[in-house]
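Re-run requested by the PI after the first attempt was lost when the workstation crashed. Everything re-entered from the original request form. Ligand of interest: phosphoenolpyruvate.
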Amino acid sequence: MTQQIFAANWKMNHGPTAAAGIVSELRRRWRRFDVEMIIFPPALSFASARAAAGDPSPFKFGVQNVYYAERGAFTGENSAPMAKDAGADYVLVGHSERRHVFGETDEDTAKKCAMVERSGMTPLLCVGETLDQRNRGETAGVVTRQLRAGLAQLDQVELTTSVIAYEPVWAIGTGRNATPEDAAETHGVLRSVLRDLVGDRAAEVRILYGGSVTPANVEQILGAADVDGVLVGGASLEPDSWLSICSA
Ligand code: PEP
């Protein structure tokens, strides 16, 4: 049985002071030790959030993005080795906002996943179709392409330890979530692609669902087949709502 993941993507919310306050509160109120909880603060808030979690921390931390080069003249970017040095365990790769607002390509996601693994962290690769693609019946094809491309440079061990998130673009931040049946269907597609890549060890790869998850719908989503956890944006920003999701 794999351990479920509850991942909080704070996006561009909570500066260093607010982030530290929220993590302190989460630490004080955290009761679950049978799940893996990961917080993805904005890069500038990472250090204060990580420090507020204490040592040892009951949670894991990740960054929302890295560049795929190790160092150099890339003004404004952060590298994977820097994220590792700062205390990150995970890196989000290919989030829909990176793909659709900042133009991240499948090839970028492949290079980033490889750099994240080689820097000693785990990529959390996000895949998902737009509403137009869904309406054209292209969901399975789109997520299969994104998954194969993003994982293309990983070896067998890296493939089984990486984490995947299915996040339909039309469900992110819109209040419109996929039904448990929609999630199960697409997670089944992803699991079968993984089976093709790593055989029976595909069962060990955690596939999260993301897209307007709230305290009201999380239990239904987690009950769907092949859903091993959730990646949450809006409803992870405040401790009450986030802890209520994590207690599902
Ligand atoms: C996300 O940012 O990955 C996300 C799923 O956002 P929201 O929960 O707000 O839809």
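Saved to the shared folder this time. The mean pLDDT is 96.
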